Amino acid sequence: MEKKYVKLQTSIPGPKSQELLERRNQYVPKAISNNIQSFVKKAQGAIVEDVDGNIYIDFAGAIGTLNVGHSHPRVVRALQEQASQFIHTGFNVMMYESYIKLAERLCKLAPGNFAKQAAFFNSGAEAVENAVKIARKYTKRQGIISFTRGFHGRTLMTMTMTSKVKPYKFGFGPFAPEVYKAPYPYVYRRPDGMSEEQYSKMIIEQFEQFLVSEVAPETIAAVVMEPVQGEGGFIVPDIAFVGRVREICDQYGILFVADEIQTGFARTGKYFAIEHFGVEPDLITISKSMGAGVPISGVIGRAEIMDAAEVGEIGGTYSGSPLGCRAALTVLDIIESENLNERAEKLGNRVVERMQILAERFDCIGDVRGLGAMCAMEIVKDKQLKTPDKETVGKIVKAAGERGLLLLSAGIFSNVIRILMPLTITDEQLEEGLKILEESMESVFAIDPAL
What we know:
By secondary structure, the chain is an alpha/beta fold. It is 38% helix and 16% strand.
């Protein structure tokens, strides 16, 4: 008999979760969103149990922070061992070896045959903020270029660099100065009748014109690019575009920063997604799956650039905490020993294959795309007009949650379903999750499963 991993004991949310929800609504502001109205009790691998005993399959991975899965035993042991020795000293008060070991390993893993250094922080937004500071210090320029549909964080600088207005920017201005948004490829939404090759050429030309019409390249410190846009809808650029941006950066002395916060640590089948594009960044920002759920982030970069800031100019109280460093070192061990880069490729191929089958059944699926295990499908009202369908995505995500599947949306129009399952998920768990996704879509469209 086929094993079922999802087990629902109550409606979602159950009575214990409902009680906690009442307290949450009383004491926690509504501005902090919640994808599913349940409360976790425990989690292991790709399986999550809530306080009412309901068991879910996780296709969200805490928004891409759990590539090695929930509570991986090796991470748990490392954290327990570290906590028994010391929890925190502050690296700028008394140093610890794990910080040095982590910096050394990441510098060796990062692309580029040149001397590198690494500095650690707490969140992805902090990593981007510090990459901007380092770039400005090194180049003695102020301008920063990010891209349309990009997401880089919620702090003042990173919110400014982010494209999506609602919910991330609306009402929170004024924003930081000297930030410019350049065009980024979106092949699915290219003009009708235009080939992918023609579209690629057009976007490159638009970027080149941008440096004439919008801002002088001599004033730009850095271009910050997600190798695959995450919150923007899992949009993969073509190699020619990324390569040309790198060439322009070299031409004008602009630093190329790869924002790998969601794409890093084996998610796309490489340690860093930028490796797919044959480009060597000057700086790389990292976080999310770096710490297997423990807050830690970092910037890796050319040694002469990283060393441009003076003593005390970057850092913070909890930056590169001992717990975060130990977790990150263990994550790197797991990726290597469990071949998670290869696993990501296999998982991604299977997810895309199933999504393409779904696209044959459901007219609402306008596009299926991804890189490695960073996969998504875009939901539209009309395949010809490509009208975004945010409402249907919300219904699918809700229906999936009610059936025991944790799922996320994305996209500038909030009309993309993205998959960020732990890379340690079993084949059986993956198939059950994909089946629930299909059943959720059937329920939303009132389609007989037999058809």
